[in-house]
Amino acid sequence: MTTLVSSTDTLTRDALAVLQPGFLGTTAPAWLLRRIGEGLTSVGLFGRNISSPEQLAALTAQLRGARDDVLVAIDEEGGDVTRLEVRHGSSFPGNHALGAVDDTDLTRAVARELGRRLAECGVNLNWAPSADVNSNRDNPVIGVRSFGADPGLVARHTAAYVEGLQSAGVAACTKHFPGHGDTAVDSHHAMPRIDVDLDTVHARDLLPFQEAIASGSKCVMSAHILLPALDPNRPATLSPQILTGLLREELGFEGLIVTDGMEMQAIAATYGIERGSVLAIAAGADAICVGGGLADEDTVLRLRDALVAAVRNGDLPEERLADAAARVRGLADWTRRARGASEPGADSQEGTAPGTPIGLVAARRALRMTGTAKPLDTAPFVAALTPVANIAVGDETPWGVAAELERLLPGTETVSYSGAGVAGTDTDALVARVLAAAGERTVVAVVRDVHRHLWMAEALDALLAVRPETVVVEMGLNEAEPRGALHIATYGAARVCGQAAAEVIAGREG
Fold it and tell me: What share of the chain is helix, strand, coil (3-state, %, to 5)?
């Protein structure tokens, strides 16, 4: 039985129930446990809250000591976006690698195993998968987080991911509705606008969400995007036409609608988090995600009080807040019942070596090689041409091939080169630094989305003009023409993607 020790009034309890806040530290602060006792039903975890699986399990047990059906949410997409393995890199390739393989059984198995690991640690709501169709190859925030640019492919893999994750007893949260794939702006920084007609929205962007709903996705996350074909005035997160009219009534979604992070500038800089949260609940959202950047008790109290005040002054119908809170509690109840009733995880797949982790199986299958090169038997020099990471991915998580090449070829050295401000003759200076550091060693150039970064493309071309035997590893979208004696596309920068590429370079394929 759920034990609630506070006598907080119903309205305040409902306002707390719809919040999904974050906090600082690897143990639950006293204020958080107190608010859970007063009605807070969800908690969001980020990389800063996790140091090991054992610590995470202890943290979630601590939270459940305050409320046994608490929703513990995490942004664990696998691939480039990992919180569970934020300090080492993910054991699972991301969506783009799975889309490149295009085996829905594999996607389902990867999601099931990821879900099993989350469930073991006490996490029961995953803000994944991304169902965005990456129709704009220059998208600065989606990219390899998408299964691909084809709506049908994205739809079938989104459905498989939802099925796999939820078979492990972890609720899926399909995002970012109604589709963030055709944006050229990162909503962490500003409000993206997508100017396409209604037919395009339905045929392209909504198809994966329809499949996710049909597959039983327990949750859908809204996008902070302006889509005039659906609502010319308000972004999706704050739009009754999009959340209630389209998602609830037209598409028939009955689960939990949660917002993307309300402190993201697309909302915070335009509406403010208090007004934005009131408008989101009024529009049809059921839960407010906040805590990636604002992770203190004051934020929780500000949002709680804003919702209560909005009901009392007539800006937010009390029954709408009550309905939202009931949906949150309903999902919490599902996760409690699902605990211990999930299907067994899958660690390997037919045709692979016994015991091979499914994430590595998938990463190996995703590789695409162009050209040939003799496997290296001596330590190379790795030049990592490093772009600025977007906020969703963050810069805490290591990426590349360095660690795995060092394991296979001891003595491997890696240097990271940033392209900030590099243009024209500066390219020559950058390449000169690479060549001086490399000496006689073979150069392995590691890049990420080279098609989006002119400095990176120019540096790579200049390097190959001098060292044509250079091996190139593309760990982002594989949109540029293959370069290098051997070009390896990994379709993501997860640790296992780097391991799979390193095995090829060293001739140690599994």
Answer: 40, 10, 45
Start-to-end C-alpha separation, the chain: 49
Q: Who contacts 52 (Cβ-Cβ below 8 Å, separation ≥6)?
A: none
Q: Is 195 a catalytic residue?
A: no
* Residue pLDDT, tens place only, 437-448: 999 999 999 999
216 torsion bin: left (phi>0), alpha (psi -120 to 50), beta (else): left
pLDDT, tens only, 215-225: 999 999 999 99
Q: Cβ contacts of residue 485 below 8 Å, gap of 6+?
A: 371, 372, 373, 468, 469, 470, 471
Instruction: Count Cα neighbours of 404 within 13 Å in the Cβ-side half-sphere.
Output: 26
Tokens 């390449």 -> residue: 431
Active site residue 260: yes
Of the listed 75, 260, 286, 449, which one is catalytic? Answer: 260
Q: Describe the strand order of the beta sheet including 381-386 as a list of residue ranges.
A: 368-371, 486-489, 471-474, 443-447, 381-386, 413-418
3-state secondary structure of 9: coil
Name the catalytic one among 188, 224, 453, 487.
188
